[in-house]
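Sample entry (298 residues):
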Amino acid sequence: MAKTSNFKTGAFSVALGSIFLGSIGILVRYAGHSIQPMTQTFGRIFIAFLFISLFNALRKQMNETFKVKKKDLALFALNGLIGFSLMSSAFTLSILYTNISNTYFLLYTAPVFAAIFSVIFLKENIKSYVLLSIAISLVGLYFLFNPTNLSGNILGNIFGLITGISFGAYFVITGYLGKSYKSPTITFWNQLFGALFLIPLIFLFDKGTSSFDLSTWMPVIAAGSIVVCGYYLLNHGLTKISPSAGSILSLFEPLSALIYGLIFFREIPSLYVLLGAGFVLISIINLTYGQSRQTKKA
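Predicted structure, serialized as tokens:
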């Protein structure tokens, strides 16, 4: 019963966190080009860091937050660099150079990379139902992404693919750290290192000046609050379920992004997109059913 409860709690946490994160692209669009891409990304993550710091302080968890083994500190830094700074900056650039659907569905090739990295680095035995769910989700992503746009949005799509690889790595590193640390600690260090590693990218990529008008920054501040809520829930879920399972459940993010795009930008999904969404839902259902059977056997 404990394993079943852990999976249900972890699955719900990852799914809810992913639905939160699905709205970030909307706020990036609203911030637009008045704030330079890397400055905008840094602002989003740094604000999230301030929020998680305040949260941990109010709950008197700062002592626990700083009880990190030296050998694990390098992993937190790596997670911030690859799974956060690289992923978030590529995500922002992809949103600005291609449409929101392309960005999200390239981002969610992450389950493929999460499975590969889990086998290589965690020696995880990937169950057959997980592999089937990944295969079904890829079919869904094919319809959702619409590969005919590859040549038309090449730069944005390259950035989108980088987000997929980086996010896949994030699940694996966070899943490993989740065996020893709780979500508030993981979220704190990920946001801190993520923000720090973005500072040099501001000077590298941002060529113009950014607006410092408060009204212009409101979408970034709102995005920061969503980032901390989304990642707190995601990280909490990954302390209870495997990285490969978590990466599949995170596909709730692109599904929610479709709804957000429809509501805020009137981006009406085609029949192919709806078909793809159906395959993604089937992959999530298959994962949940397979995990339930596996738990009962155990």
